[in-house]
Amino acid sequence: MTTAPRPVTVGIEALDVYGGSAWISADDLAEGRGLDRGRVKNLMLTGRSVALPFEDPVTHAVNAAKGLVDGLDPAVRDAIEVVLVATESGVDYSKSIASYAHRYLGLPSHCRLLEVKQACYAATAALQLASGYLASGASPDARVLLIATDVGLADERAEYAELATGSGAVAMLLSEQPDILELDLGAFGLHSFETMDTARPGPDIEVADADQSLVAYLECTVRSFADYRSRVADVTLDGTFDHLVFHTPFAGMVRAAHRRAMREFTECEPAAIAADFTRRVEPGLTYPAQVGNLFSGSLYLALASLVDQLPAMTERARVGLFSYGSGCSSEFLSGTVGEGSGQVVAARKIGPRLAARRRLGFAEYTDLLPASRACLLPRPDLTVDAATEWRPDSRGGPPLLALRSVKNYHRHYDWI
């Protein structure tokens, strides 16, 4: 018996962001640390999210996905059969964060659960693996829930990088009904090599070589696009893509990568490159400037920003996406956003929720840092005080998951 081939359209059906419930402005943090204002301005940051003492990668993951999952039709929710969590803030060397997310999101038992690690590139790797599974037709109409979640470790030792290090998560529902982004299957470019630009040799330790990280990021930007161009016919950087979205440690780094790529692959003059950055790249930088680097969620925070900033579209637009993870691995991929994508993302009210976060002063922020780092340490027993003064004002919003205790290394959470 022969059957007609199934149409293959795969990508992001729904997307939501948890950008934390508290933040500190870049100006307040820079003043508190005595940093040079000129250099701070070049980062192009408004502020960064800050993890509260009862927030960890699990709570970020669940809080990012909760509204998205609860809003699904029961049949669609029941079709979720893979839960992938991308993180470099894992709380266990064996047990995955996906198992906690699966429990507290109330997902069906017929799920594969998996945690993926490759610094900030992990979510893109998971996206490609999941897309291949969905496109194979092995389980028609299945859904994959992919969550990128991290807690930033930067403090005064990181100097200017402290301003750009956020905490939070991005949740994406992947399926054959890509209402937000339909992937160009088979259209990708890769570039990877071993380097020690950043690493986490311990759960509460982060080491970084800022100069090496910038060099590797810029090199991967141009080499991954060169590989993409070798695989996909008739591609030009300045003509094929209506918009460009980058992994965004901070917007100034993205501007440097865009300029480097445009100089290498186009004949554009400096003024034209600057105008192109404003038109095709800047819409994706609004949310990253408010949240900071979300690590593996960074690229998809930028995608959410782009789609939310676009005016009502009357036709599909092609987007080029650059993903980078320290260590390092990178990929240039592409897809199209459709006419209804803006409405789908706008319904999540990401911008208003970011605006409603509690603003911290510098003293409050520095008091929080030890607890934010300690939440990643393995401890046999711990009681977490979700103190009233730190609880977010949830009036008009959904409840948030909070870490309440650890008993015999088993983490326990509750809704506040």
Automatic annotation (TrEMBL):
Q: Which Pfam families match?
A: HMG_CoA_synt_C, HMG_CoA_synt_N
The residue ranges of the Hydroxymethylglutaryl-coenzyme A synthase C-terminal domain are: 274-369
| Residues of the Hydroxymethylglutaryl-coenzyme A synthase N-terminal domain | 6-175
Keyword Transferase tagged: yes
Q: Would the keyword Transferase turn up in this protein's UniProt record?
A: yes
Keywords assigned: Transferase
Q: Which family does it belong to?
A: Belongs to the thiolase-like superfamily. HMG-CoA synthase family.
Which protein are we looking at? Answer: Hydroxymethylglutaryl-CoA synthase family protein
Give the species: Streptomyces chlorus
